[in-house]
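Database export, one record per block. Field names are fixed; values are copied verbatim from the stored entry.
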Amino acid sequence: MDYMIFVGVIMLVLIPLLVLSMTNFKPYNTNSLSETLEVVQDSIRQISVLGAQTSSQVIIHLPLHLLDARVNGKTITLTTEEDTVSLDMPIEVIGVFPRDKGTHYLKIYHNGSNAFLYECGNNKIEAFEQCDGKENNLCGLGANVCYTPGDQRECRCSCTNNFECATNYCDVETHACGYCDDDDDCSPGEICQFGKCIG
């Protein structure tokens, strides 16, 4: 009998608490969106202090119900069904902020005045990517393969020789199209200009 009373009291206390917690539950609330933007802001702040030609990678997790993500000047705005969260970055930002649910490996590059956002694996050629998933038109003459996210050669075209690359430079060690550093990287009769072999 005492056991039944005890179970009854527990049920009277637990059921309302369970119902209350489920009705107020938001798996990704404004705080997590704010924290996501703060992580990006910190990374942009770090590379802007380090100067031009610096880059960073930020791992972020976006909620299931992210409806929009906008990059406008120094401001990044994330929108869900319930909230809109914006945060100003230390320098002007160019690029596309991911909108799809899940984990993203967002790359940030500082060119001296702007921060470029890009992500390998979103089927959009951005910033320094030669290809991205099905977007592989620049892979042209080679095996027409775009290296996948996570590979050291990610979002670069595969190649076996310089003529298979839009930059006319194939890194023979990695079998990926790249950018030349000097004339020695190019085929005989070509010179290296701005990372591309020109003949």
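Remark 1: The mean pLDDT is 81.
Remark 2: The longest strand covers residues 54-62.
End of record.
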